[in-house]
Amino acid sequence: MKNAVAGDYVEVHLTRQIYEGVLLENPEPGIILLKLDSGYNIGFNKKDVLEIRVLEKSLEKKEEIEIKKDENKPNIAMIITGGTIAARLNPKKGGVDWLDTPESLFKFYPGVFDKVNIVKVEVPFMKASEDMDFKDWQKLARTAEKLLNDPNIKGVVVTHGTDFLHYTSAALSFFLKNLNKPVVLTYSQRSIDRASSDANLNLQCAALAAISDIAEVMLVGHASSNDDFCHAMPGTKVRKLHSSKRDAFKVVNAKPFAKIFPNRIEIISDYNFRNILKGTSKNKVKLDLKFEEKVALVKVYPGQNPDILDYYYLKKKYKGIVLEMSGLGHAPTKRARKSWTKKLKQVQEKGLVVCAAAQTVYGRLDPLVYSNGRELMKTGIIYLEDMLSETALIKLGWVLGHADWAKDKKIVREKMLENFAGELNDRLD
Amino acid sequence: MDYEKLGFKCGLEIHQQLDTKKLFCNCQSILRKDEPDFIVRRRLHAVAGESGEVDVAAKHEMGKDKEFVYQGYDTTCLVELDEEPPHEINKDALNIALQISLLLNCRILPLTQIMRKTVIDGSNTSGFQRTVLIAQDGYVETDGGRVGINAVILEEDAARIVSRTPQAYPEKSSTKIFTKGKDEVVYKLDRLGIPLVEIVTAPDIKTPEQAKNVSLKIGEILRSCRVRRGIGTIRQDVSISIEHGKRIEMKGVQDLKLIVPTINNEIERQIDLVKMKKSVAEVRRGNPDATTSFLRPLPGSARMYPETDLPMLKISRDLINKIKKNLPRLRKDIEEELNRKGLNQEMIKLIFKMNKLEEFRELLELVSNPQLVAKVVLMLPKEIASHKKVSFEKIEKILNKDILAFVLEKYKKRKISERQIKESLERIVKGVDVNMAVKFENEDLGNVEEKIMKIIKEKPGLSEKAYMGLVMKEFRGKVDGKIAMEIIKKYIK
Q: Nearest-CA residue of chain B relative to A63?
């Protein structure tokens, strides 16, 4: 039993039956999984198995693939961080393998190589996006900076899990200053082992976006359920709005930069043009990675106790908080059973920065319309116009990370309302 | 033909749709005939083989990805569109598959894994078919001996092909980007996901006649469970070989009349091919004239890998025992039971033909007179339909189980006579209120008569027809016209 490893062809002996097949990795503890010759997998409880006899050891086949570099194609680099798009199920063993070399990428996504050479693949870490935090974003930005400042590389594609992808895209938007080339984040919602995977179109379009003139941090993914084109979406104006659909990401309070087909680009809105001044220092991207971790995002709901602010501020010593407020920017006021007005004033006087974003997702805040809004506004809340709450959280962390800004509430307000990376849009249509 | 001498071997593969909602989502299994509500355009691309070999790249070089158009309806959900992970396996469908497995004397696997079988002809939006091995090592007994059942599998049906020609979907559709003249395959999503049970027999069948018997026997077992009925709901493949010949799989040979001649024709063809040493393993399509035509070479074993969106499927002892206790009985056994109750062969046949067994049994519990219940369930609705020139379907809808039970209850309580059952039903079909429909002269005749008398007194000298109009207005159809006319006639005279 001890000798048998995943991949071996074995006999599994039970008290009354013997099964033959390929031993697979355990899907859960206490279970032995076997692939029958018919292709079906069946399981056994470990305690029912008397013996596993190896009939044939598995042969590790190593196939050498050579990717020919085509001098006529532009070069791009790829950063792989994890997620569905970088994982492949190894059906022979039953476990997951990572796609983290140009060769393995070519093996599974040959379409990406149609228009570009992928000359560098960097793997700063392998994580599901829900496991990442600002340290990962900083690491990612450093990796991107090196690649972007390589004159041999036209653009960078980052593959990433979908869950918190829009937080990463916002972070990179603030961290990478003086952006000279495209930084394209892409994803997949359907794993690549299926013929229907969305990764294929997303990657082909991402590669095309990476060699375009759109020098922005953008997210490229399906524009609809159809496999026809993707949208290039601004990194600070994008949000995951569906848990499972291919077109899970939508631009909020702005327009996509472009429609991207596998073989052409249709521009939709203005963008920062690729810097073509070669060899000058102006052409170099710079890092601004400062980040204050003590920031939080809190959603306001009916009847909520404002003590939550004490928890963050007094107990946990938070520096800033983004409130996802109702409607045009409201929370329970003096007329409510549990009013927030007094508490908001208190914590802000003590130094907590309180910003407001819209929990409606779409639309702009305006505290002046209703008396409730005016009452809350007087407490000093910074209303972040049409900024997405997730982007607001990242931006608040970034702004408060700058000690010379954070020391003065007035500067913080100024910076939060300054448009650094397209996070604010003064014209909604 | 001496089949033994020929080294004839034969096995069946039967696919039967189950009569439940879909296997991995909560959609109804409804096939649509109307125009689709929307379309979705997808591409399927080559996927890496089991061991991750480089055939993807090779295939990519060979040609562009295939494009498919899927027609959806308001009955289509995100699972069918491959836009949402599968829901937990349909418990009803699983239970039926377990019933079938037990009736086929199979050993049920306590722990099994839902698999993805790679399918890239576009008939599955996901690029694979979800399939799970439920049971193994069963058998059916036939006159020609025992035939083994290798596997009982539960899987999802594929999308229906609509056309391979361009422009086969409505031009007014919301998605405007389509290229004219491009060769595309169009599928309807309505059939995708309907639960199928696949039964694979061992190659134990020794004669074409036995193949037919096995098919009959398995068919009978299937129909004793909750399965869909009608054309297209059962599909049978017959695999045969003769000595020195290769395996031939013949698809769509489910018509009982065609099984024997189709096999015999193929054997003759194989005998010639073997002589010329030209027998090749292939898949053929069964034709209505009992011949077959080439479909494709026999594929290698299917590429399968786990459905990682779902946990291992555990089938507990408790569940198996529960299903064992409630196993449906086979038609043969039921026929014997009905015969013992005194129904003749004609009635028994009719009960099955009209699919009225459940209704019959329930009503029999109310009135333990099998002859009468059979008459009420099987004969009267038909008679009324032909007499009133109304479609049987409509009559069946009006005279549903509850209505029949109501009328029989009145009979049981001696409120109406056996003879009046039919009349009550006729009145109900006519639209008479059910409570009124079971009221007859001996009960309320006095009341009706009194009112009619009053009407005639109030307006003397009118014609029979005129009185009839007034009476009907008074009772608003709640009294039988025949009876009313009799009373009117009585008083005019």
A: B53
pTM here is 0.80
- The pairing of strands B66-72 and B185-188 is parallel
Q: Would you say residue B54 has pLDDT above 50?
A: no
Query: Is there a shared CATH topology between the A75-287 domain and the A295-416 domain?
Result: yes
Closest CB from B43, B109, B131 relative to A42: B109
Mean pLDDT within A167-176: 98
Contacts of B90 (CB under 8 A, 6+ apart): B20, B21, B22, B23, B24, B195
Confirm whether A240 is a catalytic residue. Answer: yes
Give the CA diameter of chain A. Answer: 80
User: The sheet that has A295-299: what strands, in order across it?
Assistant: A295-299, A320-325, A353-358, A382-383
The amino acid present at B403, given as its one-letter code, is I
**Closest CA relative to residue B191, chosen from B306, B13, B14, B33:** B33
* pLDDT band, residue B165 (cuts 50/70/90): low
Higher confidence at residue A142 or residue B433? A142
CB atoms within 10 A of CB A371: 10
Residues paired with residue A292 on neighbouring β-strands, in sequence order:
none
The complex's ipTM? 0.90
Average pLDDT over residues B73-77: 93
The CA angle B204-B205-B208, to the nearest 5 degrees, is: 165
Domain-by-domain residue ranges, chain A? Answer: 9-56, 75-287, 295-416
Q: Which of A8, A35, A81, A84 is catalytic?
A: A84
Residue A300 phi/psi, 5° resolution?
-85, 135
DSSP characters over B282-351:
EEEEEPTTS-EEEEEEPP-SPPEEE-TTSPPEE--HHHHHHHHHTPPPPHHHHHHHHHHTT--HHHHHHH
Is the Cα torsion angle A303, A309, A315, A316 positive or negative in sign? positive
Architecture of A295-416 per CATH? 3-Layer(aba) Sandwich (3.40)
Q: Does B57 touch chain A (CB under 8 A)?
A: yes
Q: Is A84 a catalytic residue?
A: yes
End-to-end CA distance of chain B: 84
Q: Which residues of A touch B126 (CB under 8 A)?
A: 190, 194-196
Dig out the tokens for A313 from the structure: 């501020």
| Active-site entry in A73, A92, A127, A163 | A163
Question: In this structure, are residues B400 and B358 in contact, taking their beta carbons and an 8 Å threshold?
Answer: no
Q: CB distance from B255 to chain A under 8 Å? A: no
- Of 3.40.50.1170, 1.20.1290.10, 3.30.70.360, 3.40.50.620, the CATH number of A75-287 is 3.40.50.1170
Strand ranges inside A67-135, DSSP E? 75-80, 87-89, 96-98, 117-122
Express each pLDDT in B389-430 by its tens digit.
Answer: 888 888 888 888 888 989 998 888 877 877 788 889 989 998
End-to-end CA distance of chain A: 67
Cβ neighbours of B47 (radius 10 Å)? 21
Question: Number of helices and strands (H, E) in chain B?
Answer: 18, 17
Retrieve residue B217's tokens.
């026997």
What backbone phi and psi angles, to 5 degrees, belong to A364? -110, 150
Backbone φ, ψ for residue A352 (5° rounding): -70, 130
Distance from CA of B240 to the nearest CA of A (A): 19
* Continuous segment of H or E residues that includes residue B366: helix B357-366
Helix (H, G, I), strand (E, B) or coil at A153: coil
Q: Do A226 and B41 touch (CB under 8 A)?
A: yes
CB half-sphere exposure, B309, CA atoms < 13 A: 20
**Any idea which architecture A9-56 has in CATH?**
Roll (2.30)
- Nearest-CA residue of chain B relative to A246? B83
pLDDT at B116 over 80: yes
